[in-house]
Amino acid sequence: MAVQTVASTTESAGSAGRSGSAAPSVDLGPAAALSCRECGHRVPLGPVFACEECFGPLEIAYDFSAYDTEELRRRIEAGPANIWRYAPLLPVPADVATKPNINPGWTKLVQADNLARELGVTGGLYVKDDSGNPTHSFKDRVVAQALEAARAFGFTTLSCSSTGNLAGAVGAAAARAGLRSCVFIPHDLEQGKVVMAAVYGGELVGIEGNYDDVNRFCSELIGDPAGEGWGFVNVNLRPYYAEGSKTLAYEICEQLGWRLPDQIVVPIASGSQLTKIDKGLRELIELGLVEDRPYKIFGAQAEGCSPVSTAYKAGHDVVRPQKPKTIAKSLAIGNPADGPYVLDIARRTGGAVEDVTDEQVVEAIRLLARTEGIFAETAGGVTVGVTKKLIENGDLDPSLTTVVLNTGDGLKTLDAVADTGLTATIRPNLDSFREAGLSS
Ligand SMILES: *Cc1c(COP(=O)(O)O)cnc(C)c1O
Ligand SMILES: [Zn+2]
């Protein structure tokens, strides 16, 4: 990992980003400090992401002690139909809702009865459909947080390393906020993702290499004068970025009537989303917004990039990097930063981590589309396919309430189902129609 290199240079990148010598104090709502996930060392809020003591990852620590449960619930319910209804639980300034932002979130929780029948789920099956976000993936949630942090720290360029969806989300968020964006992707991504990332007018750079190469390059850029004043949403702004995934947990529970689901199936790329969904659920329990009951978190990967499920099945605590080869490119991170934390969470909650082949991903995309009218990208094929497999293996209990995440839109990964097409081509007359065997 490049954490060590980057940690030693973060300070200069950070102070450059503050555009001046004196660091202004930032007020990010209830966010109190950055805290090391390994050793607990605390530092003030700033554009840093690695612990100065042990190089462990930093995350946001909050002070929620002033909240009254019922008042907080009323405040959330009276809030806007987007992620800012949860502003009291996020690292954002008090006036966040008044500034230009693409305002993602509050996507549909679809009661998937048809899919439940196909899979034999009797306890209630739901699809949290995050393809409904402004740039059609879950990434808008995390970018919205990183954007607010970038503003607070005075960064003028928004950047990222991306497997595709993040590039689009950063481009759109920067466009609306009036910031420059310059984002980096592997050069061989799906055309839908490339167009989606480029159309917002920012700079889009293809790197000859895979995502892990792109990520390593970005870590170098942060430490170099060439990257001064740049806020990398998933590198030096990562602690803020990551908190955006908590809103998925909040929304699922609120949409279930302030109730925890029994089981959630979450896709894994870096593993950040899965770890923050767990953090969000634990916060709701601590705040008294949901009843304290057990829940299980399941992780989903594609077989062609399955470093976390491989470690899980082998009983390992460390994740050995892989070279990705799968159609699920949005999940193709061979060296997932949060892998060990994902293993902890799956084991602690009684969940599991599983993977499916590319063929099963395609099958699952079709299954979700024909049962529920939801066209998922390959990442959604991974979660639905893994759900099916977990039920067949007996790892997931079909008599319990289960939520499956669809994190992206099938229109971005059309190649996966490119052999889908016309049922028939006919002349525009009834005889021709009857001949085709389509009459009722
Ligand atoms: C980025 C992404 C994820 C999850 O990413 P993490 O790095 O694990 O947080 C899931 N689905 C899609 C479609 C994505 O683009
Ligand atoms: Zn530490």
Characterization of the model:
The chain is built from 15 helices and 13 strands. With 440 residues, the chain is of the alpha/beta class. A six-stranded mixed sheet has the order 4-5-13-10-11-12, sandwiched between helices. The chain has a four-stranded parallel sheet with strand order 8-7-6-9. Helix 3 (113-119) crosses helix 13 and helix 4 (139-153) crosses helix 5 (165-177). Residues 1-23 have low confidence and may be disordered. The protein has a domain at 108-136 and 244-417: 3-Layer(aba) Sandwich (Rossmann fold), CATH 3.40.50.1100. The longest helix has 16 residues, at 378-393. Bound molecules: pyridoxal-5'-phosphate (PLP) and zinc ion.
Quick recap of the structure?
By secondary structure, the protein is of the alpha/beta class. Helix content is 38%, strand content 14%.
Average pLDDT rating: 92
Structural class: alpha/beta
Order of the strands making up the biggest sheet: 4-5-13-10-11-12
* Major sheet details: 6 strands, mixed
Instruction: List all distinct small molecules, including ions and cofactors, that are bound in this structure.
Output: pyridoxal-5'-phosphate, zinc ion
Write down how many β-strands occur, each being a DSSP E stretch of 2 or more residues.
13
Helix residue percentage: 25-40%
* Amino-to-carboxy terminus distance: 61 Å
Q: From the coordinates shown, what is the CATH architecture of the domain at 108-136 and 244-417?
A: 3-Layer(aba) Sandwich
**What is the approximate shape?**
globular
Low-confidence stretches: 1-23
